[in-house]
Amino acid sequence: MSDQDRPEQPYAADESAAVPPSTPVPPTTPVPPSTPVPPTTPVPPSTPVPPSTPVPPTTPVPPTTSALFADSMAGAARRAGFGAATEGEPISGHALLKAMGGIRGLVEAVLPGLVFLVTYSLTIDPSTDVTSDPIGTLLPSLVAPLVIGVIFVVLRAITRQTTTPALGGLVGTAISVALALFSGKPSDFFLVGLWTNAGYGAALLISVLVRWPLIGVAVGFLMGDGVAWRLNASKRRVLTILTLCWTGLFLGRLAVQLPLYLADNVELLASMKLLMGIPLYAPLLVVSWLMVRSVYRRAETSDSL
Prior knowledge:
Blueprint: H1 65-79, H2 93-99, H3 102-123, H4 134-158, H5 164-183, H6 191-209, H7 214-222, H8 233-262, H9 266-275, H10 278-304
């Protein structure tokens, strides 16, 4: 096909035709400079907090009368040797010796009376009238136990042990010596012991009669039982029997020693005082331990069932 035979192409616009110019962008408005931030006002220093007022220590609440009574009764039971009843240690000679203050406690309890008996027997002639010159006659036998008591106190102070037991014994010995010197009767040396036995025996007997046996009261507070033992028939019966046993000990001493005192039989009175002291006290204390432990063990077993 020739060029003349080709169909005529429609007119095409020139691609290079000029594009109309775009609308000019107006210039941006200049941002005004920012306002300068004024300097911050300095914060004034804070007012110092005053130190807090110290809290005064709490004033201890004084123990009540009932608490003091409970402590005193428990302490009396311990001093009497009942403390071992609350401990798990088996009853033995060592436990018994410990309850009586050990070897030193035994010596302090026995030696003053023994020294008096020996000194009196060696220095007093039975045919001598003591009342004619009581000071000259009795002075050696009365001073000897007093000196022994002072030695006991000094030894305890040197070894830094409590001097209360020795001081108590020394005061008792001094009173006994004073009574014997003032009256001129050597048997008055044992008057304090007679008063003690009579007082303890009467108090224990009265407590049983009013159904408040003192051994029960003391042991109850020692065992932490208070007076609840009175609600337990077994405890009440055992503690009443124990109180009667101790009543018998004190009144038995009085029944034997009072006639000897009235007869002014000093040697036999001193001997009986020694024989009815530790030899009777120790077995009764062991029996008391056994009975207290037994009745409280039975009560605990029955409560756990």
